């Protein structure tokens, strides 16, 4: 009985049930079957279900992060520099080394995103190239992952009404899965019932299916979240008084400019000779 109770409650907590009604019904039936009405822990978890149940979190922008992700990411970096045996002055010095490492990694990631181009060879080539131009490298890979899932989808119906088209989609080998995608042709806005964009800020495979169906070659503006774009820092003006930090930032910026210059100069022999002469002079 104890094992059955734990296994059933674990399935409810672990499964990503997206519909509130299904979650409520599954929870109610489990509580009744296992006679857990008086269980204090079960009652407490039900009261705070909006904080942990996936059905209540769909559509809320979380960037794909869990409650402890930021702390865990920071700890994973700093633990390489800090130990319990350090003296206070050593701790401060090592802590700043860890911060410098974080700044360097950010500059490196910016350089990779802005000064190199990923290979695009997918079946949605124009959309993939547009995504590569817009998104940072890490976010581009996540978007491309959704593109690769698109061929598994098929449309079961399409209804046009009041300036919008509603598509009912299902997935190959999983006919019980259902999604509804609404497309507004006048403004090229696409919304999906899975709410992946509202939750994580990236377009889902269902949206890409509708884009392909309507021969859309560029990502709609409403499906591009600026915080995931290469130019997200464009309008951010941060003043720093730390000379060392300023040096690192200037070095990273100049490295980016040089990378673009190298790419430009290598395209033709004339450009190569011109840049070579300018460099020597």
Automatic annotation (TrEMBL):
InterPro entries: FHY3/FAR1, Znf_PMZ, Znf_SWIM. Keywords: Metal-binding, Nucleus, Zinc, Zinc-finger. Residues 183-215 form the SWIM-type domain. GO terms for biological process: regulation of DNA-templated transcription. Signal peptide: none annotated. Coiled coil: none annotated. It is found in: Nucleus. Its main location: nucleus. Belongs to the FHY3/FAR1 family. This is Protein FAR1-RELATED SEQUENCE. It comes from Linum trigynum.
């Amino acid at each position: 009985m104890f094992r059955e109770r734990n296994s059933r409650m674990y399935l409810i907590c672990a499964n990503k049930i997206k519909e509130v009604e299904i979650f409520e019904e599954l929870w109610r039936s489990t509580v009744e079957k296992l006679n857990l009405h008086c269980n204090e822990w079960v009652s407490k978890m039900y009261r705070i279900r909006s904080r942990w149940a996936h059905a209540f979190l769909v559509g809320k922008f979380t960037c794909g992060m869990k409650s402890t992700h930021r702390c865990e990411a920071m700890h994973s970096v700093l633990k390489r520099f800090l130990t319990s045996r350090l003296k206070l002055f050593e701790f401060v010095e090592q802590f700043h080394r860890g911060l410098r490492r974080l700044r360097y990694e950010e500059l490196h990631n910016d350089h990779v995103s802005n000064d190199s181009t990923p290979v695009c060879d997918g079946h949605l080539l124009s959309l993939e190239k547009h995504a590569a131009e817009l998104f940072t490298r890490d976010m581009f890979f996540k978007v491309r992952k959704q593109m690769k899932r698109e061929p598994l989808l098929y449309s079961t119906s399409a209804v046009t009404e009041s300036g919008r088209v509603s598509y009912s989609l299902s997935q190959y080998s999983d006919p019980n899965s259902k999604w509804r995608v609404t497309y507004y042709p006048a403004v090229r806005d696409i919304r999906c019932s899975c709410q992946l964009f509202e939750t994580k800020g990236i377009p889902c495979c269902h949206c890409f299916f509708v884009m392909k169906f309507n021969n859309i070659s560029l990502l709609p503006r409403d499906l591009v979240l600026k915080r995931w774009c290469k130019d997200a820092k464009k309008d951010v003006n941060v003043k720093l008084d730390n000379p060392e930090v300023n040096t690192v930032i200037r070095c990273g910026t100049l490295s980016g400019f040089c990378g673009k210059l190298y790419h430009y100069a290598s395209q033709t022999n004339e450009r190569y000779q011109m840049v070579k002469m300018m460099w020597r002079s």
